[in-house]
């Protein structure tokens, strides 16, 4: 159980580091400074605009999940229609 908990915590930490690294690369590309100072600047900007970041990332994730659900429903409807019609694929 302890091993599973530590794995979960490390995986969460890895996701956070990857997210911050992505933002640091963006800041490096924009300003042309080193990765560490750009990472600090990116983290500071994220912290100062925390509600905006949560709203934009949340809405984006919700939109992607909704699109996936819509595709699932369309495929399921087509499959049920083919099964109901008795067609052999």
UniProtKB/TrEMBL annotation:
Which keywords does this chain's UniProt record carry?
Membrane, Transmembrane, Transmembrane helix
Q: What is its main location?
A: membrane
The subcellular location is: Cell membrane; Membrane
Q: Give GO MF terms, alphabetically.
A: transmembrane transporter activity
Identify the domain of life: Eukaryota
Function of this protein? Choline transporter.
Q: Does the keyword Transmembrane apply?
A: yes
- How is the protein disposed in the membrane? Multi-pass membrane protein
Its transmembrane ranges are: 59-85
Name under which the protein is recorded? Choline transporter-like protein
A Gene Ontology cellular-component term? plasma membrane
Query: Which family is annotated?
Result: Belongs to the CTL (choline transporter-like) family.
Q: Does the keyword Membrane apply?
A: yes
Q: Which InterPro entries match?
A: Choline_transptr-like
């Amino acid at each position: 159980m302890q091993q599973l908990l530590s794995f979960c915590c490390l995986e969460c930490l890895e996701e956070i580091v990857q997210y911050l690294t992505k933002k640091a690369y963006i800041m490096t590309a924009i300003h042309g400074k080193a990765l560490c100072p750009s990472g600090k600047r990116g983290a500071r900007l994220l912290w100062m605009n925390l509600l905006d970041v949560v709203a934009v990332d949340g809405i984006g994730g919700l939109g992607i999940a909704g699109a996936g659900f819509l595709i699932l429903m369309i495929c399921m409807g087509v499959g049920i229609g083919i099964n109901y019609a008795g067609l052999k694929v």
